[in-house]
Amino acid sequence: MSGWRLKIHRKRVPKGFERIEDKLDAFDEKMKEAVEASHEGLRKNETTWPVTKYHWLRNRFIYEAYYKKKIISRELYDFLVRNKVADGALIAKWKKKGYEYLCSLLAIDKSASNFGTTSICRVPLNKRSQEQQVLPAVNTGCVSCASCDKGAPIWWDGPFKRSDLMFSDEEEEEEDEDEEDEKEGAEEKESKDEEKEEVDNAEEKNEGPPTKRQRT
Q: With contact defined as beta carbons under 8 Å apart, do 144 and 125 qualify?
C-alpha cells in the first residue's frame, strides 16, 4: 500500500476523491523511483533533490486542483491536508505574495543554513553573481523559486513544466478559458472606470468655478 493510502486507510473519504486518486498514485510511484534510484557518485544532499521535487509536484497538483481548476471540493481538500496527504504549510505559503512558487519550506528555514539566511534559490537570478546563476540550493536542488523568474521553480534538472502536473488537456483548456474570461472582465471594468472618469471630468469642467452668489 502506498504511503498516502496508509494515511487515509479505513477513513471516510469525501466525494470526488476518484478524480485525483490515479494522479496521487502516479506521484507516489515517481517518488518511490526517486528513492530507489542509484545514488552512485552523488553527494548526500543530492540524493534527496528528486524527493523534494516530487513532493512539490504532488502538492502543486492538489493546490491547483482545488484553488485553480475547482475539480475537488473544500471538504476533500481539507481532508487531504488534515491527513497529511497534502502539505498544508507549503500550500499556505504559495498563497502569499513572493512565495507563489516556493520549492520547499527548507528554503526559508534560516535555522537550516550555516549562515542563518534563506537558500540561494530565493534570490532572483538577475541579482546573483555569474557563478551563482545556475547554482542549486544544497538542501533542495532548486536553482530558483523566486516569483519573478520565468519557469520557476527551476530545478537542478530543468525548469518546471506544466505537463509534470499530469492534468488532462481538457482540464488545462478549462483553466485557460477561465483566465481569459478574468482578463476580459478586468479589461472591461478598467474601460468603464476610464469612461466614468472622463464623464466626471467633463462635468466638472462644464460647471466651472463657483459664482459669487454660490460662494455666499
A: yes
Size of the chain, expressed as the number of residues it contains: 216
Rounded to whole angstroms, the Cα distance separating 171 from 151 reads 20
Count of Cβ atoms closer than 10 Å to residue 83 Cβ: 15
Closest CA to 45 of 136, 118, 125, 116: 136
Q: Where are the alpha helices (H) located in 68-150, listed in sequence order?
A: 74-82, 88-94
At 56-112, the pLDDT tens digits run 999 999 999 999 999 999 999 999 999 999 999 999 999 999 999 999 999 999 887
Under 8 Å between Cβ of 147 and 177: no
CA angle 122, 135, 48 (to 5 degrees): 85
Distance CA 29, CA 141 (A): 20
pTM for the full model?
0.77
Residue 184 CA to residue 178 CA, distance in Å, equals: 10
Interval 116-126: pLDDT, tens: 788 999 999 99
Task: Calculate the alpha carbon distances from 216 to 33, 82, 111, 212, 213 in Å.
Answer: 85, 69, 70, 7, 5
The grid coordinates listed for 177 are: 478559458
